[in-house]
Write a structure and sequence with these properties.
- There is one protein chain.
- The chain is of the alpha/beta class.
- The chain has two domains: 167 residues, Rossmann fold; 155 residues, Glutathione S-transferase Yfyf (Class Pi), Chain A, domain 2.
- The chain has eleven helices and 15 strands.
- Strands 2-1-4-5-6-7 form a six-stranded antiparallel sheet, covered by helices on one side. It has a six-stranded mixed sheet with strand order 8-12-13-3-14-15, with helices on both faces. It has a three-stranded antiparallel sheet with strand order 9-10-11.
- β1 and β2 form a beta hairpin.
- The protein starts with a strand and ends with a strand.
Length: 363
Amino acid sequence: MNIKKLEVVSFRNIKNAIIEPCESVNIIYGKNAQGKTNMLEGIWLFTGCRSFRGSKDSELINFNSSKAVLNLDFSAYGREQNLHLEIEGSRKFHLNSIKQPSASKIMGEFLAVVFSPVHLSLVKDGPFERRRFLDIAISQLKPKYAVTLSQYNKALSQRNILLKDLAYHSELYDTLDIWEERLAFYAGEIIRQRVGYINSLSNHVKEIYQGISSGKEEIEISYYQQCPAVGKDRQELYENIKALLYASRKGDIITGFTSVGPHRDDLSIKIDGLSARSYGSQGQQRSAALSLKLGEAAMIKNFTGQQPVALLDDVMSELDEERQNYILNHIKNWQVFITCCDPNSVANLKYGKAFEMKEGKII
């Protein structure tokens, strides 16, 4: 999957910019607030997802315009394709000149992964961000997983409500069985899918991190369960989770929330045997987060047969020269876009293209 041409009009601070990238590494460099991240954000919108910066659609339009227009020529699935996006109140897509009913209908047509400073939360913040990373990554590959997750969250909410009500309505106690059976069923599938995904992701992450660190450090990722629920098959896992829920009832009634299940689990990330969150340097934490995102890209390729475009925003910060060199010159056979402020980074680029951005224009 490769971008052939991108045109951006009235998007954020970009009035009109055209870029024709190469099929390998493309660097967009310039001072702060010139529009570098906006270019990556524009590319990302063609995945059908919302802004990775959490922005509303109305915030994406240039102050002096009523709408933003973006056009993408790309190759995917063995043919040349085109995606056209207009943002005017809402997002409107055309795929190969055919109007699409919604953004969700184009998901899977253009594939990308994005790394930005906000993704450092994967390593630096609490378990919620890591669970979210897993759930989104798996859902992209297996849409049914998102349905299972939604059903689990509904059952979890109902059990939590019931736990609070039991203080005033003890006659409802027997209904806990109903919600725990549902929770155990959905929880088992979530855990099974997460463990399977991490087991496959692990090899990619290890290989990428070894390259970034020049083999000087080793990363290890694994699934961490606060209350381990294991099983050789679905039924055994279901029974074990149900038993854990039953055993936790007394404490859960006191606290008013469910203490057992995948909503309490975590993705463990260790560098040389130590917690990356607690003991990793800034460079190590950034390298770990980047390895997870590039590993996600490798998983997408394995599943779809298409190599997603990599969008790496401000990835060079806090990385030493060796790590920068790997990113610039050793990510091969796929298209990568990198933003940076330091023009000296461009001098280290052996293959690829560099674009300077100033005041929302490619110069």
